[in-house]
Amino acid sequence: MTTVTTTQNAQAGDGGSMLLTLMKLRTFIALFAVIAFFSIFAPNFLSTANIILMSKHVALNAFLAMGMTFVIITGGIDLSVGSIVGLCGMVAGGLILHGIDLQIGYTVYFNIVEVAIITLLVGVAIGAVNGLLITKLNVAPFIATLGTLYVARGFALLSSDGQTFPNLVGNPDLGTTGFAFLGSGRIFGLPVSVWILVVVALAAAYIAKYTPIGRQIFAVGGNERAARMSGIKVDRVKMFVYMFSGFCAAIVGIVISSELMASHPATGNSFELNAIAAAVLGGTSMSGGRGTIGGTIIGAFVIGILSDGLVMMGVSSFWQMVIKGIVIIVAVVVDQAQRRLQQRVALMQLAKKD
């Protein structure tokens, strides 16, 4: 009787291990599934022009998702990234068109590199505000970033009275030309935004895996109290992840404005949903403590390809929102199932050893 029970447990453990492996590979399975589906049902889906266009869209999702990944790993959430995209786009557009009026009859204009740096600093500053609200005032991340979402969007609208900053070609005499390169330029046939993504993704992956702050991010998300008692400066870690999230959102604001050669205050509306979906689909646990940059990039590919494929098939934007919502729900459900299965398999393996 004991022999039969042991055999059954071993078989159940092997089956659980196989199912757990499939769950861990769910992002790759989903990626291959959407590629296969749209290759069959969407016309010209695999054409060179469409692949390049999709790569640009994926890059935008991936930037936001990388920042969101670090935030979620710590057990937080950042709902403000879409509004930061819009505000930073308006900052870049305003600096190119109008510069900074010093109110003494003199206006300062900046070259494109300086415009990009200032815009990135604005994104980092908003992220720092989120971090301070959460760490110093003990505001829940959901509420803090929800408030920042409205504040940033409001400032974006106020900067132009709700109007667009058009024709961001710049003025050669002022040294403000060349903005289009960031959004429309190519290097070795690939969009500049894709190359920027490669650099940022490699840096983020290195931080997560090989630096003390990276290990501390996972420690805080795994058990914040234990991390604090072990000497980790939890507040500093949280400040870092929200500032990095703001930095990534600022990049997206710059790239979109550069691609369109115009800045609109409503840019980035609901982008946070795509970022959360990509991060969760890529294996980042909403309960914190687990996630990878590589998985998030794959998740961004799934979301980007899904969005573009649905557009090519003529699916209504309303249905696209429904589908993305379902993707988020399914991803969270599978993540919770994976956590329970991991615990069960671990217990079976311990019983097997005994």
List the helices and strands and how they pair.
Blueprint: H1 2-24, H2 26-41, H3 48-73, H4 81-98, E1 100-101, E2 107-108, H5 112-135, H6 141-158, H7 180-184, E3 186-187, E4 190-191, H8 192-210, H9 212-222, H10 224-229, H11 234-260, H12 271-281, H13 293-312, H14 317-353
Antiparallel strand pairs: 1-2, 3-4
Membrane topology: Multi-pass membrane protein
Pfam families: BPD_transp_2 (PF02653)
Transmembrane segments: 27-46, 58-77, 83-100, 112-133, 139-158, 187-208, 239-261, 318-334
Describe the overall structure:
- It is found in: Cell membrane.
- One of its GO terms (molecular function) is transmembrane transporter activity.
- By secondary structure, this protein is mostly helical.
- It has one domain.
- Helices cover 74% and strands 2% of the residues.
- A two-stranded antiparallel sheet has the order 1-2. A two-stranded antiparallel ribbon has the order 3-4.
- It starts with a helix and ends with a helix.
- Residues 6-13 have low confidence and may be disordered.
